[in-house]
Amino acid sequence: xxxxxxxLLFALPYxxxxxxxxxxxxxxxxxxxxxLDLPVSPHLAALGSVNVSLQDNDIALSxxxxxxxxxxxxxxLQVNYTNYLGGVKYGHALxxxxxxxxxxxxxxxxxxxxxxxxxxxxxxxxxxGTFWPRDMAIQLTASRRYLERWYYGLSIxxxxxxxxxxxxxGLAFHVGLNYQDTAHHWQAGLxxxxxxxxxxxxxxxxxxxxPFDLQIGISKKLESLPLQFSVAIHHVHQFDxxxxxxxxxxxxxxxxxxxxxxxxxxxxxxxxxxxxxxxxIGRYIQLTAGYNHLRRQELGLPQQxxxxxxxxxxxxxxxxxxxxxxxxxYQRSEALNQLGLNLPLKEWRY
Length: 350
Known about the structure:
Number of helices: 4
Distance between the termini: 44 Å
């Protein structure tokens, strides 16, 4: 069974390459509500911002893959804060509850992004006052176990966005599946993210798609060391995810209305891959590191990539709390910091 699951998961990217619609290029600028892909917690950010298989009793991971929600996360309350780039700040709060009667675990969360105060101007640049743009998402998740090793989950998310007089809302759905073999310390996961539709558009008649993403991944913990490795693949349904830079001159072609950079197949494939490792030091300390190749290639300066694409985090894990910090490098001189606190409330009872 294990070999079959691994083979199917890693065959998906190549099978999707055969689908004609999967050849569409460029990720950014073609979808609405792109903030849904921001890493909401320091743990997820430290893992490279994409992970659908790691099972670590961290309820925040279920925000991206509902199948990672477990009954052990009953009454877990988590609050996360992110100091994002450009002075943008966002917060995320999540609470889990296991309903024994229905054999189902539920979670509710709120994600809020504050872009700060912005000056409104007219076409001539004259100030017309100020406004506060914001994005918000409210999510409800349900997860259940099937047989001994399978878990499946569904998330429903209401999304709202407001930029001065422009407002939009929508519904997003996430469907996840997870297989966990505790005897051999490995997990495999799959999630369909951001399936849905706009309920209200920014401008009349301008319907835009949500940032759909099909992700798969595998995590394996070593038998002799407290070390766990993860491999995640995002945008399985879309083969070429490279950014089409109009200013890039060498080796450019025009395809489907976009400027596309020519390149090797290996680079196209590896831009889907996110690598991560997690090391448990003693009983209370976790060190996490991740590498996102797409982020490094797209955001790193050509001659000064530095730590672009890398991320790292530390967690203090006890029975009564989980305190995590992460730092993710987007460019050599630009990184974001995230802080998260998880309180298992059931452990605080006297």
